[in-house]
Amino acid sequence: MRLAGLLLALSMAPAGAAPDATARIVSTAPSLTEILFALGLGERVVGATTYCNYPEEARRVPRIGTYIQPNLETIVSLRPDLVVIESNPIRLRERLEGLGLKVLELDQRTVSDVFGAIERIGQASGAGDRARALEVRIRSELEEVGRRAAGRAKRRMAFIVGRTPGALEGLIAVGSASYLNELIRLAGGENIFGAVSVPYPKVSLEEILARDPEVIIDMGEMGRASGMSEAEARRVVELWNRYASITAVRERRVWAVTADLYVVPGPRMAQAARELARMLHPEAER
Predict the structure, then answer these.
(1) Which of 5, 6, 183, 277 is least buried, going by the fewest C-beta atoms within 10 A?
(2) Which domains does the chain have, with CATH numbers?
(3) How far is CA 231 from CA 22, 92, 169, 236, 238, in A?
């Protein structure tokens, strides 16, 4: 009832042409928020999700709920000219359009998708030139990572994006359909679950022991965005140190990382690729 009343009030507001057709934008995913800010559109972002924490300025944007549970009443109350959403399983586009809102729905499952999202957001917001410049910069940085990795031996690796806190149980890894799999290859790695056709498959510790990765990157608990202390990182490494049969453990190439940089497919892809390359071949940094 409250939502219906709000829609009626907005429909009765005085009409008038806005100086910019997308002066007020709501973002429903951290990756989209990062793109908007990278394009210099931060001042237009009037709503973002609970997990939109980068860049720092994004923390001050009013919250509209989460990716899976957005608050439609809050979104409507912000009077957006455009709502930017990621393809999702909750029919968000249809629901928002049913409320009379303009929606831009984007895929970001692959590196190519991310570039497409940057381009389409640029077109929709009148920032096409900035979008093209951003794409050129990111492509150049990714190519540089690839050039540096080209002469190095590929190292088998596992990237764990989620698990039971404090235990090597409930493991979720990067599979072939994730954009992270592309970055792993670019950075000089060979994903031991790269033949699994889903983005983030559930895997067992026994599978990891059998496939014997040379590098393990462990993101620990899913949803942890940033701020891992040295003590926390040591505890993660100690979990794996119990399994000395794994090459990554014996050669001290188990890395504890936080989610923020890696699970947000957006303008920081090249930074993520550089960090992957550093962890795959730390000796190259010496």
Answers:
(1) 5
(2) 2-106 (3.40.50.1980), 153-285 (3.40.50.1980)
(3) 45, 40, 21, 9, 10
